[in-house]
Amino acid sequence: MKKILVTGGLGYIGSHTVVELQAADYDVVVIDNLNNSKQSVKNRIEEISGQSFELCIGDVNDSEMLKSLFIKHAFEGVIHFAAHKAVGESVENPILYYQNNISGLISVLSTMEKFKVSNLVFSSSCTVYGAAADLPVTENTVIQQAESPYGTTKILGEDIINDFAKHKAFKSILLRYFNPVGAHPSAKIGELPLGIPNNLIPFVTQTAAGIRNELTVFGDDYSTEDGTCVRDYIHVVDLAKAHVKALSYCDEMHLKVDVFNVGTGKGNSVLEVINTFEKVNGLKLNYRIGPRRGGDIEQIYADTTKVNDLLGWSAQYGIADMMKHAWAWQQELE
Ligand code: NAD
Ligand code: UFG
User: Fold this and answer.
1) What is the pLDDT of residues 222-275, one digit of tens each?
2) Rounded to 5, what percent of the chain is helix, strand, coil?
3) Where along the chain do its domains lie?
4) Per-residue pLDDT tens digits for 25-46
5) Is the pLDDT score of 334 beyond 80?
């Protein structure tokens, strides 16, 4: 059994990935400092997979703790999720983001180097493309200056990994996620809400649940079919499966570092999302059209040719499943 370290493995995407790794017969060890997760997620993952895994409650910036994990286990690879991810918070407190996201990555890389562990899968984001001129975006689309310190940590993270890999026996896959949404079909794991959501789907489900009075659609005067912004929403279980594919591709690839878009390849507007949510769940959402939100890009969706061809991965769930599972998870939370 191949042993994999998953940093941030109790978080939203990490928890779903641990389930898929266990289903693919990987032996998983998780390090998570519970900064944005709960220890009870471990039991829920184990309920789904029917298998246990080792959890180390600790910070990836604690190099002594990381070292002790690498002494104890012969890892074949690392999936590095641990990071802060709130765009607004990163603008308010950039140092917090550079500290956690950049220092954390450096700590992981230097420990991997010390213990001669190759194969890193890194969580990047479509935020690196900014407002791309041509759609859909391919992996060769020009990277733009980030609009937030959070975005900068993803661009810098990719650069650091590229520089690091040049002179080392080291391989890495950078996965540029589009908009991860939904939850596990079992409704045992999903995204944990923290305060007032900034993202569309948690705001939709909380409005449906009566936690929020009203959803505001940020602008309907964009140059899109119905005037609202378009994104490539990807089911978190599909995204999790892409990590398993990426790990095995690491072994066979010729490049030191390779990068993949992970999306469905299809864009959905905000109104399409709302209409689908209402239809599949038989609910009416209280929403109104409001002004644009500063910093929003009009539309973005992925060209998924590369991930389809080289990783042999494609999204299986559509927007209706995403909305059904997101709502089932919200009800589980109440
Ligand atoms: P999340 O906050 O749910 O999960 C991150 C996990 O890492 C949490 O469990 C948190 O407690 C843990 N963590 C944070 N800092 C840590 C540290 N220093 N040491 C140990 N554990 C730490 O976030 P997520 O949505 O699962 O995102 C995972 C990764 O994917 C992040 O790198 C994020 O930037 C990236 N990403 C997320 C999205 C998205 O929309 N969710 C989009 C693109 C990229
Ligand atoms: N939206 C609303 N009302 C809301 C919330 C969102 O209309 O209450 C709209 C937004 O304007 C946008 C769409 O729904 O058009 C999606 O918004 P999200 O905030 O869910 O997602 P974003 O695409 O704006 O943000 C995502 C990630 C960020 C990342 C960013 C970069 O959440 O981490 O992409 O592209 F930085």
Assistant:
1) 999 999 999 999 999 999 999 999 999 998 999 999 999 999 999 999 999 999
2) 40, 15, 40
3) 3-181+235-263
4) 999 999 999 999 999 999 999 9
5) no
Tell me which architecture the domain covering 3-181+235-263 has in CATH: 3-Layer(aba) Sandwich (3.40)
Which residues approach ligand 2 with their CB closer than 6 A? 85, 87, 125-127, 150-151, 179, 198-200, 203, 215-218, 229, 231, 270, 293, 296
- Cα dihedral: 152, 154, 156, 161 (round 10): 180
The number of the ligand nearest the C-alpha atom of 180 reads 1
Ligand 2 centroid, distance to 207 Cα (angstroms): 16
The counts of H helices and E strands in the chain are: 12, 13
pTM above 0.85, yes or no: yes
Cα angle 154, 274, 322; round to 5: 60
